[in-house]
Write a structure and sequence with these properties.
The chain is of the alpha/beta class. About 35% of the residues lie in helices and about 25% in strands. A four-stranded mixed β-sheet has the order 3-2-1-4. The radius of gyration is 17 Å and the shape is globular.
Length: about 170
């Protein structure tokens, strides 16, 4: 996991928008770096060749618009800066952060950089949540049942292989 002992208090609140293609690419990466009381925001746009029409309905970004907003930059143009921000981080928060982090790891892998995984379940347990990790879709019903029976907050981290997508055209 990223983060040095003295920097563990740094958090990043993350959101990523995707092109909806297969494999998906990040087209917008936005995050807040939270260092105690200091908060800084970063927002990156990345140029791509195509965007799935269903994805475009979600985020409203088109290929031409991204080319303008990004200045033609690809993920690789900002990878060093992004890596440095995340390596000093003790916790990443956000909606579907595990999914966004998987896409972030995929982007780094495309340029030959290993981007470490975060242990989200340990973070949840540090906050008093119980939970589990599922790696197969067939495990989800049992995990949901365990969550219902827990009587409290319960985190289910879903780490599937990415062989499916929410965008029907990509199937």
């Amino acid at each position: 996991m990223f983060g040095r002992k003295h920097e563990k208090k740094r958090m990043i609140a993350l959101d990523a928008e995707l092109d909806g293609m297969r494999p998906s690419r990040i087209i917008q990466l936005s995050y807040l770096i939270i260092d105690g009381r200091r908060i800084r925001g970063k927002n990156f746009y990345f140029s791509v060749d195509a965007i799935n029409r269903h994805a475009r309905k979600v985020h409203g970004l088109g290929v031409g618009q991204l080319r303008k907003l990004s200045g033609g930059d690809l993920f690789a143009h900002h990878a060093d800066e992004i890596y440095r921000d995340f390596e000093k981080c003790g916790m990443v928060i956000g909606h579907d952060v595990a999914g966004d982090m998987r896409y972030l790891r995929d982007e780094f892998a495309r340029i030959g950089v290993e981007f470490p995984d975060y242990d989200y379940l340990s973070v949840a347990k540090a906050f008093g949540f119980d939970g589990c990790i599922v790696t197969k879709a067939s495990q989800i019903p049992a995990a949901m049942e365990a969550a219902r029976k827990s009587g409290g907050p319960y985190m289910i981290e879903v780490k599937l292989d990415g062989s499916f997508t929410v965008w029907p055209e990509a199937l």
